[in-house]
Amino acid sequence: MAVQSNAIDVSYGYPDYNPPQHMLDALREVTANHTSWRLHQYSHPRGEARLRRAIAKLNAPLMRRHIDADREILVTLGAIQSLDFAARAFVNAGDEVVLFSPRFMYYEPIIRLVGGVPIHIPLKTLNGQKPRQSNDLSFDRKQLEAAFNNRTKMIWLNNPNNPSGKVFTEEELLFIGQLCERYDVIVMADEVGQYYHFEGQPHITFASLPGMWKRTITVMSGGKTFSSTGWRIGWAVGPEELLYGMTVGVMAAVLAVPTPIQTAFAMGLEVEMERLNTNQSYFSRLVRESVAKRDRFIKMFDELGIDVVKPNAGYFIVADFINVVHKIDLSLEKDRRFGLQLSLWLIHQKNLVTLPGKLLYHLDQNSGSEFVLRMCFLKTDDTINQIESVLKSTFGTKS
Ligand SMILES: Cc1ncc(COP(=O)(O)O)c(C=O)c1O
């Protein structure tokens, strides 16, 4: 709908600007290459060797171990295919999968499709106060402990958390790790937002914690890493035994991920690795630019009198419009389903596409989320100006 109507779309997590120039150059070079027919044929089902080597090199320091590029990496069509195949490989009907809520909206359908039962643990402040920033959120340890039992097959741990931007502390991760050890649970560590940490804290890869490698599949996204979500490159890193069923999944579904795209991505990653920790690093640029964009959204919402929880990481901002909905005629939107009306009103009346909070919270947590909307802040200044002008002309500024 957003594409057809030329709407401003902040509902999904993608930027409205290009990947870095060296990625575009690499793609051009690959498609212009007529000397190697291999570039245009199936890659190995685990992924193109050049890309696996680059991923292994990038991940070894994060995981504090050598990564075997031939056995411990699987390239998939986006991170989402790794999630899907992890569910298919490990979750049988009736198996329970622990999730923190709010969560990436596709977790639940992926788990339910294979007959799994999601068990939701709310992220919340432990003192009952309203959170001011996403890192004020935590979880009740007793509640998490009570969620584990002999039906628990996996925990899907998204760090930093989409949509809130919460970064799990080492202490929290160690606590989760102990439970996984006790109940022999597999960890699907979705770390696609690992390059979007805004407070200078280093990213802790769950698999790097003592004893966790053997039970962890770490999932990362090439799209998020290089602002290229349409290239559909993602990968899983983990012990060969854990990746085996997922590899069969890739073979059965698509045989292999497109080779030219994998090769261009590998070339881009090689360039980036030369620049790591320098001013030219794209990862440092991502942080600098994302912080500036996040802060513009925060300022805008503050001027509008709309409540937000400052995200300490990630690419989304979650805003609660409850204080300003009385300023519009919501009855113009006839679809009254809980949590959808405001979002549909903004699409139909203002051509602005956001994601309703209803899709992010488990039902039990939904009561306070009727007018909560999620927006991706990875947008150009021009787009942010347009959003600001739409929202200010709709809701005015706070008096
Ligand atoms: C937490 C999380 N996991 C996985 C994905 C999917 O990533 P990809 O585009 O690489 O499939 C996303 C995309 O927004 C995400 O936010």
TrEMBL record:
The keyword Transferase applies. Keywords: Aminotransferase, Pyridoxal phosphate, Transferase. Pfam families: Aminotran_1_2. It comes from the Eukaryota. Residues 8-383 form the Aminotransferase class I/classII large domain. GO terms for cellular component: mitochondrion. One of its GO terms (molecular function) is pyridoxal phosphate binding. The keyword Transferase applies. Its cofactor is pyridoxal 5'-phosphate. Pathway: Amino-acid degradation; L-kynurenine degradation; kynurenate from L-kynurenine: step 1/2. InterPro entries: Aminotransferase_I/II_large, Kynurenine-oxoglutarate_AT, PyrdxlP-dep_Trfase, PyrdxlP-dep_Trfase_major, PyrdxlP-dep_Trfase_small. Belongs to the class-I pyridoxal-phosphate-dependent aminotransferase family. This is Aminotransferase class I/classII large domain-containing protein. The lineage of its organism: Eukaryota, Metazoa, Ecdysozoa, Arthropoda, Chelicerata.
